[in-house]
Amino acid sequence: MTWAKELEELRRREALAEAMGGPDKLARQHGRGKLDARARIAALVDPGSFREIGKIAGKGHYTEAGDLEHVTPAPFLFGKATINGRPVVATADDFTIRGGAADAGIGRKMEQAEKMAHELRLPIIRMIDGTGGGGSVKTLEMIGATYIPAVHMWSEVVKNLDTVPVVALSLGPTAGLGAARIVASHYSIMVKGLSQIFAAGPAVVDGLGEAWKDGGSANHEEAKEALGGSAIHTRNGVVDDEVASEAEAFARARHFLSFMPEHVGQLARRIETGDPADRREEALLSLVPREDKQVYSMRRAMDLLFDRGTVFEIGRMWGRACITALARLDGWPVMVLANDPSYLGGSWDAKTSEKVERWVKLADQFRLPIVHLVDNPGFMIGREAEVAGTIRYGVQAMNAVYKATVPLASVVMRRAYGIAGSAMSNDSSYQYRYCWPSGDWGSLPIAGGLEVAYKSEIEAAEDPSAELEAIRARLAKVTSPFRSAERFNVEDIIDPRDTRPLLCEFAPLAWRRLGAERG
Q1: In whole angstroms, how far apart are CA 318 and each of 80, 241, 343?
Q2: Whole-model pTM?
Q3: Is residue 487 scored above 80 in pLDDT?
Q4: By percentage, how much of the chain surpasses pLDDT 90?
Q5: Residue 45 contacts by C-beta under 8 Å, 6 or more apart in sequence?
Q6: 3-state secondary structure of 282
Q7: How far apart are CA 369 and CA 386, in angstroms?
Q8: How far apart are CA 163 and CA 161, in angstroms?
């Protein structure tokens, strides 16, 4: 006797699961320009590597005689796969089954996926579409009662934020718990025109009587974009990046993970990039203009300094006065902070400070060295900056830098003023720091304090304008970076063309220390 009959039923149930929401629902999903859940997993992970777990979970429908008629699969898929040859937990919400609402075993499956990632120390990727396991008004009638809200798996979500890389892809309209699962990640992506994120969607908002959109919300798709589209959430810091297609989202998720270790306690990996560590770029010599109010391209500097083709910028559209990126130096992965003088002159506003704090904490958690390219005129000033609480967010960013225990190298390319300038590194630690001859630093910019500090001398002079210029000329000599170097307030002033070789000297030393720390 064999178990052929039971295996036949297993195959039938697997086929029902693979049908997902059925032909009509799948056609509707594809008609919206969206892949279905199974196609998404196949596109994300290494070919043939996905092994699904809990495939036949769902809600069975039976005849009076107890025979199975059909199964409503759980609207959530997960399993073990590989990305770039490394093991991960891959998950995907299935919007074709009741919009991904929480029924048919989804809660238990989600919890097990999160537990698998935490207990086996595997990165987890969430592809979220719909309520993402959240509630539905219809669910209340099915249960026959309401309930006090509780997210039973959330403790697992929190554990994963502390232990493994978490990537979240918003791949459709997402509200409630789905929105929370996107935000509870280390790297998140939205697809322009396809993804929206809400605490509650337009219909709920309208139902509560809030006039959230001028002129009403006659067009449902426009309403979703206006309330929670990528143009909003990739600019307010809720989500890191906006992409043009699902394929681009999958590629960026894979790329992010290539820089990360598989879990806290493991070191990230070096790869051969083929870019010489001793490469010297002539363009760096003239990159910073002599005129202090002229801007230059910090992104150009990053392309010249780091291994060719490895700069992976994250969060480009928010906190724009600081560029945050992953990159490599002689193959070693590093996390980059770089002031952008083309936005607010590089001054840290509240959002920029929030972004810096998050980035430094991420580097410290996953033990990636930091390279800080500095051109910081200080915290943003003015009434709007005060209303936004800039100093609070700025101090939190500074605290993150001082608390970080990973190696940090800074390059002062031009300005470093005030408290924000001092947040380039922890001055109680060894300063692996280089300064360019274009360096300009101090407690505040001379232009902003000169006339106040020398007010009495200027007013008493026969020619106040001439006196002002004479004072400027004297101070220009005093503020030379070479005067700072005399007092060893600056460790090294370097030829800008030597920056890459010196950073490539720093990188293996940093990783040597991190390796010893792992010990």
Answers
A1: 33, 9, 11
A2: 0.89
A3: no
A4: 61
A5: 81, 82, 83, 88, 90
A6: helix
A7: 32
A8: 6
**Which 3 state secondary structure label does DSSP give 93?**
strand
Nearest to 73 by CA among 94, 52, 88, 53: 94
SS3 481: helix
259, with CB counted inside 10 A (0-12, 13-18, 19+), is: buried
Q: What is the DSSP letter of 379?
A: B
Q: Which residues pair with 18 in a beta bridge?
A: none
Closest CA to 82 of 53, 118, 114, 41: 41
Burial 43-82 (b: 16+ CB within 10 A, else e): ebbeeebbebbbbbbbeeeeeeeeeeeebbbbbbbbbbbe
> What CA–CA distance (Å, rounded) separates 307 from 92?
34
Please report the domains of the chain, with CATH numbers, ordered by start residue. 4-259 (3.90.226.10), 282-518 (3.90.226.10)
Torsion of CA 449, 451, 457, 459, to 10 degrees: -160
Q: Is 86 exposed, middle or buried (0-12, 13-18, 19+ CB in 10 A)?
A: middle
Q: Which of 277, 368, 274, 270 is nearest to 314 (CA)?
A: 368
pLDDT tens for 98-144 read: 654 555 567 889 999 999 999 999 999 999 998 655 555 566 666 66
How far apart are the C-alpha atoms of 466 and 277, rounded to whole Å?
50
HEC profile of 304-329? HHCCCCCCEEECCCCCCCEEEEEEEE
69: which 2 tokens? 């008629």
Query: pLDDT of 363-376, one tens digit each?
Result: 999 999 999 999 99
Beta bridge partners of 435: 412, 493
Output phi, psi for 495, to 5 deg. -65, 125
CA–CA separation, 203 vs 219, rounded Å?
A: 12
At a CB cut-off of 8 Å and minimum separation 6, what does 24 contact? none
The residues pairing with 76 across neighbouring beta strands, listed in sequence order, are: 93
274-292 pLDDT per residue, tens: 999 999 999 999 999 998 8
Total number of residues shown for the chain: 519
Q: Are strands 241-243 and 322-329 parallel, antiparallel or unpaired?
A: unpaired
